[in-house]
Each structure stands twice: as structure tokens, then as C-alpha cells.
């Protein structure tokens, strides 16, 4: 059997006195879609950020495709390129066009020629439904469109895994589905994904597994069907009671 793409083993992290990640053991197989869910402040964002070393951790190990994450340097840049991340805020470069936003990483980090990077960027922008807006600037697009560009920008790096941290929670309600639809398509295309979201419909549609985090610990994990209909722990029952 092939090894899991992402392996977190006994990962611990503190922010001062706060033990924000406690003995986290999490494996994500190639092609798997894992939903990370839990109360505000439970450590979901920190866990995602730790996977691609935007945060350090004190003990344990994290491997991506069998490779341990280096602390810093060129290897880290290359490894980080394998781990795409989409945040709640879209973080596009305001003074660059949509096309430039998507080609920048591939040219600088992956060493692609400009023409090749642009060809690929246009394909990806078509895929997320933004093809006709390639020459606009981010501020000329809606929030939902900007988030789709952010997804295309991540995909342009050919990541092995994509992390999404509440990608729709900053969007107006009518724009949520246009972003979720892109993520559903991505999941069905076989992309390995870790998604922090409270969007149950999305979770039921594409998730292989729901991982419930509370106070820095993985409390339970199950299929979406089982987790949402029959949570085992008091903490999960309490949490679901508040959001459902
Ligand atoms: P979630 O994404 O589940 O809401 P976070 O991972 O953002 O949770 O935060 C987990 C806990 O760590 C919270 O109590 C938060 O206040 C704290 N925290 C997050 N980032 C920092 C930081 N840079 N410094 C200190 N504490 C932090
Ligand atoms: Mg968060």
C-alpha cells in the first residue's frame, strides 16, 4: 500500500501557555478529502498552517509525500509549493492583473517560461470560470470571483495537496456556492484536500472523512454521514447542536 500523502505524527505546539495542538496524529491519503471542523479557537487554522510550516511546532513530525518539512530555506519553498493554501481572505496582489496573480508563482518558484505559465494560467482560470476576466485587477472582481482566482493561483503551482481555511466564510451568501462548486469539481478530479469549513452540504457531498477538533485535540473522526447524524463525544454533540 502506498504511504499517506500527509502524515502528522504526535505534533505538539504551544502559543505561550496555550497548548494549541495536542498530540495531533492525522494521515491524509492521496485523493482523500478531509473536512476539519470544530469550535472557534480549537486550533483548525493553526493545524493547517502547521502543515505547510507557516507555523513552527515543538515536537512530532510532519511529512508530505514522505518528505519531512525542513525548517527553512530553499527546500521549504519547494515543499511549500507542493502544499497549496487558500485562506478566508483572498490575498491577491492588488496591483497585479488576475493573469499575473496566477503566473507569478509558477515563473518565480517553479521556473516556468512566461508564455507557458500564461497558457496554463488561462486554462486554470477557465476551469474556475474566470477566463474572460484575466486582464482585470482583483478589485474589479466580486469576492466569490477573487476566491476562485485564489484557487486557480494555488493550482498553478501543481500542488500535491490543497489546504482550505474557511474559504467561503468571508463571502456574501450568494457567492458561497460558486466557490464550493469549484471545490467540488476539484475534489472529484482527485485532488487531495484538507478543508476547514462548516458547510455541511459540501462536506456530505465530497468529504471522505470529517475530523472534529476541540481545544487542540482530535476528539473524533468519521464519515460525514456518521459524524453529522451520530456524533460520539459530548463535545461533538454540543458543537453540532449549536451549528445545525
Ligand atoms: P480556529 O481556526 O479553530 O478558530 P486557531 O488555530 O486560529 O483556531 O486558534 C487556536 C487558538 O490559538 C486560539 O485560542 C487563538 O487565540 C490562539 N492563537 C492563534 N494564533 C495565535 C498566535 N499567533 N499567537 C497566540 N495565540 C494564537
Ligand atoms: Mg480559523
UniProtKB/TrEMBL annotation:
> Which GO CC annotations does the UniProt entry carry?
plasma membrane
Keywords recorded for this protein, A-Z: Amino-acid transport, ATP-binding, Cell membrane, Membrane, Nucleotide-binding, Transport
Enzyme Commission number(s): 7.4.2.1
Recorded hits in SUPFAM superfamilies, A to Z, give: P-loop containing nucleoside triphosphate hydrolases
The record ties this protein, via Gene3D superfamilies, to: P-loop containing nucleotide triphosphate hydrolases (3.40.50.300)
**CDD domains of this UniProt entry?**
ABC_HisP_GlnQ
- Report if keyword NAD is assigned: no
Q: Where is the ABC transporter domain?
A: 6-240
SMART domains per the record? Answer: AAA
Which membrane topology term applies here?
A: Peripheral membrane protein
The protein's location, in the record's own words, is: Cell membrane
- Family assignment from sequence similarity: Belongs to the ABC transporter superfamily.
Q: What is this protein called?
A: ABC-type polar-amino-acid transporter
Source organism per entry reads Phycicoccus duodecadis
Amino acid at each position: 500500500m502506498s504511504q499517506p500523502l500527509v502524515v502528522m505524527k504526535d505534533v505538539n505546539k504551544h502559543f505561550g501557555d496555550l497548548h494549541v495542538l495536542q498530540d495531533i496524529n492525522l494521515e491524509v491519503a492521496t485523493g482523500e478529502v478531509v473536512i476539519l471542523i470544530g469550535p472557534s479557537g480549537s486550533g483548525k487554522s493553526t493545524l493547517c498552517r502547521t502543515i505547510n510550516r507557516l507555523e513552527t511546532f515543538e515536537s512530532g513530525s510532519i511529512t508530505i509525500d514522505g518528505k519531512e518539512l525542513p525548517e527553512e530555506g530553499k527546500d521549504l519553498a519547494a515543499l511549500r509549493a507542493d502544499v497549496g493554501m487558500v485562506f478566508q481572505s483572498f490575498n491577491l496582489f492588488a496591483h497585479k492583473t488576475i493573469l499575473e496573480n496566477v503566473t507569478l508563482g509558477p515563473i518565480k518558484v517553479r521556473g516556468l517560461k512566461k508564455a507557458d505559465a500564461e497558457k496554463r494560467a488561462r486554462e486554470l482560470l477557465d476551469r474556475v470560470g474566470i477566463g474572460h476576466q484575466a486582464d482585470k485587477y482583483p478589485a474589479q472582481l466580486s469576492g466569490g470571483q477573487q476566491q476562485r482566482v485564489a484557487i486557480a493561483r494555488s493550482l498553478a503551482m501543481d500542488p500535491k495537496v490543497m489546504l482550505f481555511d474557511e474559504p467561503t466564510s468571508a463571502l456574501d451568501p450568494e457567492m458561497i456556492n460558486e466557490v464550493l462548486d469549484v471545490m467540488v469539481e476539484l475534489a472529484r478530479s482527485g485532488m487531495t484536500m484538507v478543508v476547514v469549513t462548516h458547510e455541511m452540504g459540501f462536506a456530505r457531498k465530497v468529504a471522505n472523512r470529517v475530523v472534529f477538533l476541540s481545544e487542540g485535540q482530535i476528539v473524533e473522526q468519521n464519515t460525514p454521514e456518521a459524524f453529522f447524524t451520530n456524533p460520539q463525544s459530548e463535545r461533538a454533540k454540543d458543537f453540532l447542536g449549536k451549528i445545525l
